[in-house]
Amino acid sequence: MKKNMVVKERMAEDLKYKDYIIKADRRYAETHEWIKLLEDNRARIGISDYAQKKLKNVVYAEPVEEGASFRKGELITTVESIKAVGEIYAPVDCKVTKYNEKLDDDPSLINTDPYGEGWIVEVEVEDPSQIDELLTAEQYVDKVIKKEE
């Protein structure tokens, strides 16, 4: 198998590229945020497995005020690791409806479960069609991860 080949595995349709798992049930921004539509116009936002592995041990997530509105590309919050600060940008126009308070006690959830318990905010998406403009899992690997390595 070629070293840079994307391997599609049957782990709930996820992609595996090198050491990274990229969930296929959500969309990605070039800045490494993922967004997963829940119901109606609600969605969750977090960072990809690739991003959390680059940050290494996350030790702090800056809380986000519920009700805050963001335009696509605006800074929502930051997460800090021992080595760096990661900026989390809005992948779409949205309004925060919930911050993941579990991160206050255990910010390492971003590392141990970036697609599950390590989500950062829940939002109301203003224009759901903006989600379709984001990258699929395969596009994220090809257009972002491969270029950064």
Description:
With 149 residues, the protein is of the alpha+beta class. It contains 5 helices and 12 strands. The longest helix is centred in the C-terminal third of the chain and has 12 residues, at 137-148. 38% of the residues are buried. The protein is 21% helix and 34% strand. The chain has a single domain (30-134), classed as RNA polymerase II/Efflux pump adaptor protein, barrel-sandwich hybrid domain (OB fold (Dihydrolipoamide Acetyltransferase, E2P), Beta Barrel), CATH 2.40.50. Strands 4-5-6-12-11-8 form a 6-stranded antiparallel β-sheet. Strands 1-2-3 form a 3-stranded antiparallel β-sheet. Strands 7-9-10 form a 3-stranded antiparallel β-sheet. It is globular and about 40 Å long. The model is unreliable at 1-12 (pLDDT under 50).
Quick summary of this structure?
The chain is 21% helix and 34% strand.
List the main descriptive attributes of the protein structure presented here:
disordered N terminus; 6-stranded antiparallel beta sheet; OB fold (Dihydrolipoamide Acetyltransferase, E2P); 3-stranded antiparallel beta sheet; 149 residues; alpha+beta
Oligomer: single chain
Residue stretches low in confidence (pLDDT < 50, at least 5 long) are 1-12
Number of strand elements: 12
What spatial order of strands do you see in the largest sheet? Answer: 4-5-6-12-11-8
Write the layout of secondary structure elements.
Layout: E1 7-8, E2 15-17, E3 20-22, E4 27-28, E5 33-37, E6 42-47, H1 49-55, E7 58-61, E8 69-70, E9 75-81, E10 85-89, E11 94-99, H2 102-105, H3 109-112, E12 121-125, H4 129-132, H5 137-148
Antiparallel strand pairs: 1-2, 2-3, 4-5, 5-6, 6-12, 7-9, 8-11, 9-10, 11-12
